[in-house]
Amino acid sequence: MLDASVALPWCFEDERNALSTQLLDDLKFADTVAFVPSHFHVEVINVVHQALRRNRVPSQAAYEYLETLRLLPIQIDPFITDRMADLLDISKREGLSGYDAAYLELAKRLGLPLASFDADLVRAAKSEA
Asked: 102, 94, 98: which is closest to 119 by C-alpha?
């Protein structure tokens, strides 16, 4: 399970760290697949767009990052509409946004660990385990 908070450092040099770099290498070179909720790419595009508007990242680097994401073995969950009530329950129970609840619900449903740098999401994942 891949949260956008782990994938975004691949775009921003000042946010890169050993864990995010290792996960990127695993996706590029190992037999690894990342699972994401259906809003993952839109969430990433929103952050990259904001970074471009603030001149935080060069345009060329932003497009190269998006191409990298496009080529990675990322599996999009097609069942989010079937899980809307579950997402609302998790949001209420854990105090998460619907976006973050989607990451947590998918990780739980697939029985996969959740890679995230979002403190509230990590706390909720531990609570729901």
From this structure: 94
C-alpha–C-alpha distance, residues 26 and 74, integer Å: 12
CATH number at residue 94: 3.40.50.1010
Domain range for 120? 4-128
Query: What's the domain count of the chain?
Result: 1
Please give the full DSSP string across 58-100, using - where no structure is assigned: -HHHHHHHHHHHHHS-EEEPS-GGGGHHHHHHHHHHHT--HHH
* Alpha carbon distance 121, 28 (integer Å): 25
Asked whether 90 and 69 are in contact (CB, 8 A), the reply is: no
- Structure confidence at residue 2 as a pLDDT band (50, 70, 90): very high
Mean pLDDT, rounded, for 92-98: 96
Give me 129's structure tokens. 């385990």
> Would you place residue 90 in the very low, low, confident or very high pLDDT band (cuts 50, 70, 90)?
very high
**What is the distance between the alpha carbons of residues 1 and 34, in angstroms, rounded to a whole number?**
6
Name the nearest CA neighbour of 103 among 49, 46, 83. 83
